[in-house]
Amino acid sequence: MQGPILNILKDPRLGLNAQPPLVVSRLEQYLQLLVKWNRKINLTAEKTAEDILNRHVFDSFQYSRALEQDYRVMDIGSGAGFPGIPLKIIFPNLNLVLVESQRKRCSFLDTVIRDLELDKVEVMNARVEDILDTLSEKFDAVVFRAVSSSQACLSLGERFLVPGGKIILKKSPEEKQDQSLSNPMFLLDKEVSISSYHGVASSLLVFSKCFT
Fold it and tell me: Is it true that domain 59-209 has CATH number 3.40.1190.10?
């Protein structure tokens, strides 16, 4: 798998800097774990390492355009670890919290963190609605990948952000329309045109939390 992984890391659509060999080995190990666990629990519809790489890892790397390498990041609804785990692999200084409600998926995430020897990563087995009033830590960015609406994400993520913090979403063109709805706590900071590995267009929406 090293060849396909290197091709993804060098893909000009992602704009990633050169990555050390440890990144390639950790991505390969992550994909191996995904394929193995997929036989037992439903993590992704894609069953081969290359299909998972092209679909999910490629999409996850798009979020790097809106992050700093030492951010404190919350990944809400992390599932199999997308986008949080691939981002942690290329940005090892991220402080990352993965929020996932399904216990079996959390067990998978715990295994990934242990086997890949990732530090500064925490898995929370909870619905995000259940930790709104209990988690005191504040984050520089909250990321969502599979979402229902921009407004729902803004409402869920707002309480976890520092002033000026970012909510980062990926939306297809037909899903972008709700960004125009009013939310006095956020400004649409930027919209980045991106595409999937196979060329399907979408947008990365970056909302910044107002300071007042």
Answer: no
- Tens-place pLDDT, residues 107-155: 999 999 999 999 999 999 999 989 988 888 899 999 998 766 888 899 9
Q: How far apart are CA 121 and CA 119, in angstroms?
A: 5
Cross-sheet strand order for the sheet of 95-100: 121-125, 95-100, 72-76, 139-144, 161-171, 201-209, 186-195
HSE, side-chain direction, 13 A CA sphere, residue 205: 25
Q: How far is CA 105 from CA 34, 99, 164, 199, in A?
A: 11, 10, 31, 29
CB of 1 closer than 8 Å to CB of 28 = yes
Give me 8's structure tokens.
């993804």
